[in-house]
Each structure stands twice: as structure tokens, then as C-alpha cells.
Design brief:
mainly alpha; Na+/H+ antiporter like fold; 16 helices
């Protein structure tokens, strides 16, 4: 039984990029061609929570305590996400037309590091997902505090007042805390009973299919929104592409300068490149007079980022050193 499960798991992981590309392509086609498919957006957060649950099962949660005490990693991670990447973003946004709504949308998403599926892609890319998971509360709290300040500096005081804490807190509770507690419970049962161990082994098959499901749902749901403000989305796309290329390199440089281990270097590179688009989306819809432009520009980054992640899972392990 275990040998069969491991064989299936190896096949899924070996072909994961092809599976993800297929999910993205099918989702994009569905979003463009199937009426009311955007209603699938309501399923994104539950699917994302399940994806994170099965990812957390693969991470030794009993070691989170030691990960939390890794102050060097946390310092490099915070400096990368809240000093280095905002500076790069401030430069990139100057290449946009002087349109406040467009710049607001780009800043919303590029100034906020991801706290959810970045853990999954870090795990798939052989980064230290345990360290990144332990750092998620700090990432969340710091971005909540600094996003209004950055918007004030770059756009003025009116923009800073658009940031509300509810989406961030909701994301932490349902996408981090609940899946994490459930995964810890399953790991505890698996350590004590044969049935729990078999269940844990079987659930080990699901990270790739769960990630593919999330990719499908996101693309199917966001494609119609992009179509409503295609001009603004196309204007922002080159900025997002430039960020996707530069960000992991800057993250790797910062991690290397901090003399981190290869797994930790990969985690910083993934974090630098992966943004909090799904959490920011409710803020985008709440901007007065911002619909459909602001949400469309935000989800454009989501599409570019998800495709980029498929490159990162192969490229970042090579860039940041051989596997431990």
C-alpha cells in the first residue's frame, strides 16, 4: 500500500508542472467561454485552505518552535519584503502612466508579501517551508502596519485610508490557523496510531491535485474580471513581468548576503516573488470608484505570478543551491 502510494506521489511530483499548466489553461478557457463561471470564485478560499492543509501535513510541524527562533532568517525575510521589495516596487511604478487608480492597484499587490500559497510553492520548490510558515504571522502583521504608510508616501494620504485589517485577519484565521491546527492534529494522530499513519500517507497524494484545483479556480474566476478593464490590465502586465523576474533574484541576493542555508535561501526567494493578491482582492473591490479597474489590475498580477511560480519551482532550487 505505502509503496503504491509513494509511486503515485512520485509520478504526480515528476509531472507537476505539466499538471499545473493544464489546470491554468483549462481554467483560463473556462473563464473566457463558460457563462457565470466566475461564480467559482466563492470556492477559491475553501480550496486554498484545503491545499494549505495538505501542504502543512508534509511539513514537520513539531519543529515550528525551532523555526520561530531562527532570528537570522526572520530578519532577512522581513528586510527583503519590507525594505528591498518596496524600494524595487517604488521604482517600477514610476514606469506606469500617472493614473492614481492604476498605480494604487499595482502598489496594493506588489507591496504585500503572500502568506498563503507561497508555503505550498516553497515546499514544491524544495525551500524550507517550515521556516516560512513560522514567519507568516510576522509577515501579516508587518504588512498590515506598513501598507498604509507606503501608500501614503507614494500616493498621498487618501490612498492610505483604503487599507482595512479585516481581509488580512480573515486570511490568517481561515487560510493559516485553521488548516495548521487540523494538520497538527492529523500528524499527532499519525504518530500514535496505524490508522492515522495510513491516513497521513494517503493525504500525501493530494498536494499536487489540490494545487491544480486552486489554479483552475483562480483562473476561471478572474478571467472575466480582467476582460472588464483589459486596457489597464495590459498596461500593468509589463510591470508585473519585470517584478516576477527581478524579485526572486533580489531575494536570493539578500538571503545569500545573510549567509542562510540553501533551503532558507529558496524560501526568501519565493517570498520575495510571491504577493498577497487573493487577500488584497477584497480591498480592491472596496476602493470607491475603483471597480472594475483596480480588481482587474490586481488579478492580472495573480495570473502572471501563478505562471511564474511554475518556473520558480524548477529555477529557484538551481539558483539557490543544490537540495539539502
Amino acid at each position: 500500500m505505502e509503496a503504491c502510494v509513494e509511486q503515485v506521489r512520485s509520478v504526480l511530483e515528476e509531472h507537476q508542472v505539466a499538471i499545473y499548466l493544464g489546470a491554468i489553461a483549462i481554467g483560463a478557457l473556462a473563464g473566457l467561454g463558460v457563462p457565470r463561471v466566475s461564480a467559482l470564485g466563492a470556492a477559491i478560499n475553501p480550496a486554498l485552505a484545503f491545499m494549505l492543509f495538505v501542504t502543512f501535513l508534509q511539513v514537520p510541524l513539531a519543529e515550528l518552535g525551532s523555526a520561530m527562533r531562527n532570528t537570522r532568517f526572520l530578519g532577512v525575510l522581513l528586510a527583503t519584503n519590507f525594505i528591498l521589495m518596496p524600494a524595487a516596487t517604488a521604482l517600477l511604478v514610476q514606469l506606469l502612466p500617472d493614473e492614481p487608480m492604476l498605480r494604487l492597484a499595482v502598489l496594493f499587490v506588489l507591496l504585500t508579501p503572500c502568506v498563503d500559497y507561497v508555503v505550498t510553492f516553497t515546499h514544491l520548490g524544495r525551500g524550507d517551508a517550515r521556516l516560512l510558515l513560522a514567519a507568516t504571522p510576522a509577515l501579516l502583521l508587518v504588512q498590515m502596519a506598513l501598507l498604509p504608510l507606503y501608500l501614503h508616501l507614494l500616493l498621498g494620504s487618501d490612498a492610505s485610508g483604503l487599507v482595512r485589517p479585516e481581509p488580512f485577519l480573515h486570511a490568517f484565521l481561515w487560510l493559516i490557523a485553521v488548516p495548521l491546527l487540523l494538520a497538527a492534529g492529523v500528524q499527532l494522530v499519525a504518530a500514535r496510531t496505524a490508522t492515522g499513519e495510513r491516513a497521513l500517507t494517503a493525504l500525501g497524494l493530494l498536494p499536487v491535485p489540490a494545487t491544480a484545483l486552486v489554479l483552475f479556480l483562480v483562473l476561471a474566476a478572474v478571467m472575466p474580471q480582467i476582460g472588464e478593464a483589459a486596457g489597464a490590465a495590459l498596461t500593468a502586465a509589463p510591470i508585473y513581468l519585470a517584478y516576477a523576474i527581478v524579485a526572486p533574484v533580489l531575494g536570493w541576493i539578500a538571503a545569500r548576503s545573510g549567509r542562510l542555508a540553501p533551503g532558507a535561501m529558496r524560501a526568501v526567494a519565493f517570498s520575495a516573488a510571491t504577493r498577497n493578491s487573493l487577500v488584497i482582492l477584497p480591498l480592491a473591490f472596496a476602493v470607491p470608484g475603483g471597480v472594475p479597474l483596480v480588481p482587474a489590475v490586481v488579478v492580472t498580477q495573480t495570473m502572471i505570478e501563478l505562471v511564474s511560480e511554475l518556473v520558480y519551482v524548477r529555477w529557484i532550487p538551481i539558483m539557490a543551491g543544490s537540495p539539502n
